[in-house]
Amino acid sequence: KQQAAMALTEDGIVKPEFEGYDKTELEGSIVAMFNSNFDKIDSLSAGDTAFVVLSPMLFYAESGGQVGDRGFLDRNGATVANVVDCIKLGDYQAAKIVADVDMVTGFLVKQKLCEEIRNNIRCNHSATHLLHLCLHEVVGPHANQSGSLVSPEKMRFDFTHYAALTDEQILELERCVNKHIQENYHVCTAIKKIDEAKEDGAMSLFGEKYGEVVRVVTMGGSKELCGGTHIKFTGQIGFFKIVKEEGIAAGVRRIEAVTGMGALRLVQKREQLLADISAESGVEPDLVVTAIAKIKESEKQNKRELTLLRQKLAASQADSFTPVATVNDIPLFVIDADGDRPTAMSVLDSLKSHNKDGLFLVLGSDKGRGLAIVALNGTAKKQFNAGNILKDILKVFGGKGGGRPDMAQGSAPETIELDKAIKALKELI
């Protein structure tokens, strides 16, 4: 890109005027062309992709977070190229085109914007200014812009803040922005010297480079230095809706939002989802949250009751368990509790109460992982070390664990199979 900009300067091509703020069509000539590698060319064939510098320029080049315009180039009433993007080449702007016909430098063409895309960009860009204003009102004056993306589909706004926004702050931001939209402020632009603009209270963005002459965009209480495209009245934005808010770095938050028809589509999608949940559950939409809370509480209660039943069942079967082996008159028990950690502990306690001497290996599950508990009772404590036994057994299953000499526990990535655990214990002992 830098090489292309230097070539334009060396050829004495004056930077073309940008006249796309208020126009959707504009006659212009192709003063320079570059291929995809930014090598200067004089012609291109149908189907080729190239970057063309037009004078004057209708298409806005990607800058300040706003994406480049899209549209068409016409000649003699027929489309000769699709404009798929617009970028900056140093101080110049170049439209990225896909040619429909053979083209040469010097072509006189009619530039045509894709108006729907440009209007959506305008709405989203103006909404970022209103959001910035409202962040100062709702969150505080420290909430300053640190980055943005303005596209036809959405707007993304990064700002400095030390914590996640509360639900109430997000709702208040939406109310604030939509109030400014409904006020239908006239969006005014003025060209001023940088010092004069700052004296008038225009907000400049940290890290942005500004020339001696700047463009000031004012809408209601918002006044910012901005070279992007905007609507004429805030009411044209229609509707503003926050999609999500998240942290992206230490002290930096991000809001993603949609406007206009995009915001309406989002609300309709969420309303349909609520309607589907209401129909499926047989509960009125306003009562869905309460109904879900009751279902979740009932599920918790059912899980508690099921756990207690499993524990009682396991404990009642403890006296029927037989050792898998006996070493030095000490019985070795390996039991699959077929339950979670509390169930496994209940089985272990019951086994210990029924056997004054013993080495116990109890298996279970814990948060999707295989669980193993080794415990010693009576004279077994003098002959074995539960921690060492557990570690050696879990090695077989790719797990880890630890604990006291008389009791240790750990887990493995997968379910610990009973037969393999018995075999591992026998080989170890």
Count of alpha and pi helical runs:
10
Largest sheet: 6 strands, antiparallel, barrel
Mean residue pLDDT:
92
Q: Classify the beta-strand content into a percent band.
A: 25-35%
Total beta strands: 22
The level of helicity is: 25-40%
Biggest sheet, spatial arrangement of strands: 1-4-7-6-5-9
Which regions contain 5 or more consecutive residues with pLDDT less than 50? none
Radius of gyration: 35 Å
End-to-end separation in angstroms reads 73 Å
Global geometry: elongated
The structure class reads alpha+beta
Summarize the SSE layout with pairings:
Layout (H helix, E strand, L loop, with lengths): L1 H9 L14 E10 L5 E2 L1 E2 L4 E7 L15 E5 L2 E12 L2 E8 L3 E2 L3 E6 L1 H24 L6 E6 L4 E6 L6 H16 L5 E6 H6 L13 E7 L2 E4 L14 E10 L2 E8 H22 L6 H29 L8 E3 L2 E7 L4 H14 L3 E9 L2 E9 L2 H4 L2 H11 L3 E4 L3 E6 L5 H11 L1
Parallel strand pairs: 18-19
Antiparallel strand pairs: 1-2, 1-4, 1-9, 3-8, 4-7, 5-6, 5-9, 6-7, 10-11, 11-16, 12-13, 13-14, 15-16, 17-18, 19-20, 20-22, 21-22
Overview of this protein structure:
With 429 residues, this protein is of the alpha+beta class. Helices cover 34% and strands 32% of the residues. The chain has ten helices and 22 strands. The strands form five sheets. Strands 1-4-7-6-5-9 form a six-stranded antiparallel β-barrel. A six-stranded mixed sheet has the order 17-18-19-20-22-21, with helices on both faces. Strands 10-11-16-15 form a four-stranded antiparallel sheet. A hairpin with a 2-residue loop joins β19 and β20 (369-377). α6 runs parallel beside α7 (341-354) and α9 packs across α10 (418-428). The mean pLDDT is 92.
